């Protein structure tokens, strides 16, 4: 176990003594199941996103702080959550969002943020993610409702624990309980992860307090793998609060039926859905029904979406730039590519930077045989991900300042771009069309631009002397002619150089 994990667990143990050990050891879980109809939780939360860091594999980016007020009916599968958010990344701002839902449908209403005021059906993926997180965050309630498969003895560092292996909603959970006093130290489950395939989603608990005879943790720290994603300090927990029914009530009669497959998709990837939620993003879906291939220049094709990809066709093979969000979308794209170019395979997957919204779909493309082209600054991160989670060996091509690729029978250049958005950033260039693809720095034909990142791209074009006529981007639409004028459309971004230091 790494030293940092040991230190973290030692800190957890220090905090577990605020409630009498006997009280916890004697938890009557049947009683908890019968007596806890609803729970109200108020908390202050910090959110972090490891795969939006400046430096690949370094300290997670801090995306928001928020106050959350939640009411949950675990047996009845109903919940209400209100998040009052201070967004930090990518855009600073205030946003309020609330969800009221039953097992399959719900209502979302929001104000502030980029989307402004709106109300509508709650995304099924968010319903799954919210429920998953409520179970994982409240281990005594989880233990009371789940079926127990087995208990085994183990240890966390020096600390002997009983590992309770549970099943609930066709999902396996592990709760580690301090053998000395019955305190749940952590709860974990395994979830889907775009980069790693599967990953541990774990919450560590401390500051246990008695709420009407039932212990609840007031201090939670959440990790996916070893990366910090959330710190939560609870300010109040109430069992069977008087106003629960009014907060849980909503009119479901006008709502379309819930999408159970999407609910499960969100449940299986709650850490991703909620990390995105922590950045103010609400609509998560795998985007498999809108995969189109649109030619924007001879032999150059944009695959538009919330995150665009580019296909470059050469006489011998293809190159794909970026792999948007989810593996499911890439699988669909691979099928479309196979229909359109049955004779050609994707030789290169060029990743502009490591951020998961531009790389989350990389695995199927790599498994189909593509070599990965990325900045040398991302190489350690990706090599670790590939070595630890993929059985095949992956050919990783590192870009320093400049690299020319000729493996598809058509020249492609990759240039480094110095930007605070990501340390290992490259832009892809097709010389015969004088076309440059970037992600996140300049978004063609979009009203919103980020001034600092835009300047970084323009500086790189001058620095390298790239003869650009056409821009395409990971965001935005179509082609923009160079030079571009973005005056009147730019937003400043928070400088975050320090956050990338490790
Ligand atoms: Zn990015």
Would you kindly provide a written description of the structure presented here, covering whatever features stand out?
- This protein is α+β, with helices and mostly antiparallel strands.
- It folds into two domains: 276 residues, Lipoprotein localisation LolA/LolB/LppX (outer membrane lipoprotein receptor (LolB), chain A, Clam); 207 residues, Ribonuclease Z/Hydroxyacylglutathione hydrolase-like (Metallo-beta-lactamase, Chain A, 4-Layer Sandwich).
- The protein is built from 13 helices and 28 strands.
- The protein has a 13-stranded antiparallel sheet with strand order 6-5-4-3-2-1-13-12-11-10-9-8-7, with helices on both faces. A seven-stranded mixed sheet has the order 14-15-16-17-18-19-20. A six-stranded mixed sheet has the order 21-22-23-24-26-27, covered by helices on one side.
- Strand 12 and strand 13 form a beta hairpin.
- It is elongated.
- The protein starts with a helix and ends in an 11-residue tail after the last strand.
- The relative contact order is 0.12.
- The N terminus and C terminus are likely disordered.
- The site of zinc ion has 5 residues, from loops.
How does the overall form come out from the CA principal axes?
elongated
Residue stretches low in confidence (pLDDT < 50, at least 5 long) are: 1-23, 496-502
- Main β sheet profile: 13 strands, antiparallel
CATH topology of the largest domain: outer membrane lipoprotein receptor (LolB), chain A
The named CATH superfamily of the largest domain: Lipoprotein localisation LolA/LolB/LppX
Count of discrete structural domains:
2
Helix and strand composition category: alpha+beta
Which ligands occur here? zinc ion
What percent of residues adopt helix (DSSP H or I)?
10-25%
Question: What average pLDDT do the residues reach?
Answer: 91
């Amino acid at each position: 176990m790494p030293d940092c994990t040991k230190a973290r667990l030692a800190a957890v143990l220090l905090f577990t003594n605020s409630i009498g050990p006997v009280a916890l050891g004697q938890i009557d879980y049947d009683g908890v199941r019968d007596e806890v109809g609803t729970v109200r939780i108020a908390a202050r939360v910090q959110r972090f996103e490891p795969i939006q860091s400046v430096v690949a594999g370094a300290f997670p980016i801090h995306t928001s702080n928020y106050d959350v007020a939640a009411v949950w009916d675990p047996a009845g599968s109903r919940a209400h959550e209100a998040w009052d958010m201070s967004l930090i990344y990518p855009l600073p701002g205030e946003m309020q969002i609330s969800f009221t839902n039953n097992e399959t449908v719900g209502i979302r209403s929001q104000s502030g943020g980029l989307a402004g005021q709106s109300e509508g059906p709650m995304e099924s993926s968010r319903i799954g993610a919210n429920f998953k997180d409520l179970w994982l965050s409240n281990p005594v309630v989880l233990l009371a409702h789940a079926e127990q498969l087995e208990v085994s003895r183990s240890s966390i560092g020096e600390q002997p624990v009983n590992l309770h292996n549970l099943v609930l909603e066709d999902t396996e959970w592990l709760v580690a309980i301090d053998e000395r006093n019955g305190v749940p130290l952590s709860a974990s489950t395994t979830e889907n992860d775009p980069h790693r395939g599967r990953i541990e989603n774990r919450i560590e608990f401390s500051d246990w307090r008695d709420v009407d005879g039932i212990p609840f943790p007031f201090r939670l720290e959440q990790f996916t793998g070893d990366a910090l994603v959330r710190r939560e300090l609870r300010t109040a927990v109430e069992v069977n609060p008087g106003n629960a029914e009014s907060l849980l009530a909503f009119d479901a009669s006008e709502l379309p039926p819930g999408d159970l497959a999407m609910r499960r998709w969100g449940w299986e990837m709650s850490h991703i859905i909620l990390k995105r939620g922590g950045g103010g993003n609400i609509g998560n879906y795998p985007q498999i029904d809108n995969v189109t291939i649109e030619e924007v220049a001879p032999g150059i094709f944009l695959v538009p979406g919330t995150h665009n990809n580019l296909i470059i066709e050469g006489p011998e093979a293809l190159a794909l730039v970026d792999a948007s969000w989810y593996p499911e979308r890439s699988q669909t794209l691979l099928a479309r590519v196979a229909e359109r170019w049955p004779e050609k395979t994707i030789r290169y997957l060029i990743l502009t930077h490591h951020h998961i919204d531009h790389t989350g779909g990389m695995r199927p493309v790599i498994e189909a045989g593509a070599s990965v082209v990325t900045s040398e600054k991302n190489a350690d991160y990706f090599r670790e991900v590939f070595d630890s989670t993929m059985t095949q060996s992956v050919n990783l091509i590192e870009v320093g300042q400049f690299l020319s690729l000729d493996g598809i029978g058509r020249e492609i250049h990759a240039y480094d771009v110095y930007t605070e958005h990501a340390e290992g950033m490259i832009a892809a260039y097709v010389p015969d069309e004088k076309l440059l693809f970037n992600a996140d720095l300049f978004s063609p034909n979009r009203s919103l631009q980020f001034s600092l990142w835009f300047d970084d791209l323009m500086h790189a074009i001058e620095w390298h002397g790239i003869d650009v006529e056409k821009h395409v981007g990971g965001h935005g639409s179509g082609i923009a002619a160079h030079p571009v004028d973005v005056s009147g459309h730019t937003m400043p971004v928070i400088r975050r150089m320090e956050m990338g230091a490790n």
